[in-house]
Amino acid sequence: MDKNTRKNAFGKWIVPINFKKLSEQVMIHKQDTYTKKLTTEAYLKVMLYAQVHETEGLQALSDALLDADFQKAGGIESISASQLSRKNNEINPSILATLFLDLDYQIKSYENKAVKGLPVKIIDSSTLPLNLTRYKWAKFRKTKAGVKLHLRLVFMDKDTVYPEKAMITPAKEHDRNQLEALVDDKEVMYVFNRGYMDYERFDRMTDDGYFFVSRLKKNSITRKVYAFSVPSDSNVLSNQMVYIGSTQKRCENVFRLLEVMDTKGNPLRLITNRFDLDPEEISNIYRSRWQIELFFKWLKQHVKIKHFYGMSETAIQNQIYLALITYCLHVLIQLETQSEKKLLRIVRWLKAALWKQAYLWLRRFEKRTAP
Fold first, then answer.
1. Where are the alpha helices (DSSP H) in the chain?
2. Beta carbons within 8 Å of 234's beta carbon, 6+ residues apart
């Protein structure tokens, strides 16, 4: 039993957080210069507790500090909702973004052992709706407000995915505008949906050596250059080399166009610049895109990202980064313990054993534990 298992479950769960790096960031941004009580470290711990317990509001979070174990973990005996609100609006989001990227780097060390061939990275976005009356700065339609989380998700296997890069913009920002920032590694296979269709960018990605597969829009014009043979017992309907676009506006490079049947029997048109893979491999790679839809669903259902604690852009960004940090901590404990349990089960056990000794939480992960 290592020294970490003598901590309570909460202490064990947050072990991967680099508090030295946090302290450095606090110094750089002069975050705690006049702070007497609610330091950035205390704020982080309190807000992570709120993520695990899905605490409804800052007043409820303030009330939860009546618990002596919570006081010890957070390093404060009490704090008012107004103080929490001020801190949430003062913290520079880049501090939490740095912690998120550090956790991401730790997950990568496990990924190197798990991934064979080119890793699959899925790009997509999700709009987080906001009340227009309270969030006028985030207006994107006549009666709506919201922010958009642009995300790159790494697909390790069907049971393990994790967010690798996140960008938060107003909801009116088009997905295509963020694609270039999310594509920066030539040793991966990118997967995205038809909302990212951009002929010029597809050409540039191909010329620069980036690989991708995307769904093609229904109204996209293609011109066949060559038709490859297709096995009769395959879910692949056609396999062609094509030009995309009209004569006035088209890609300069040739691409591979696959028409495949999805699991519901509907035809899909997929475009890719990979000619070396079997059609079934391309189809399976694109099918992994569904994992990011599941990720967004999980994030909205099981961490505090639908109901926000603050109304400023800073408060919104901080809460989104806290949600991503929370998810990464769940993934790290799953990878460290080599648990076959689903993340939701791990989170439920954490919530139930938060202030108990860590080993009482960790032993539930053992394979012999009844489901």
1. 9-13, 19-28, 40-53, 58-64, 68-74, 81-90, 93-114, 176-182, 199-208, 279-287, 290-302, 313-336, 343-352, 358-362
2. 279, 280
- The total of other beta-carbon atoms located within 10 Å of residue 108's CB is 15
Q: pLDDT tens, 33-60?
A: 888 889 999 999 999 999 999 888 999 9
What is the pTM assigned to this prediction? 0.91
DSSP string, 335-351: HHTT--S-HHHHHHHHH
Count Cβ atoms within 10 A of the Cβ of residue 158 and give its class: 0-12 exposed, 13-18 middle, 19 or more buried: exposed
DSSP 8-state class, residue 10: H
Q: CA 184, CA 107: separation in Å to the nearest integer?
A: 19
Q: Is 20 helix (H, G, I), strand (E, B) or coil?
A: helix
pLDDT at position 306: 65
CA angle 188, 190, 193 (to 5 degrees): 175
Beta strand pairing status for 211-215 and 189-192? parallel
Q: Are 108 and 156 in contact (CB under 8 A)?
A: no
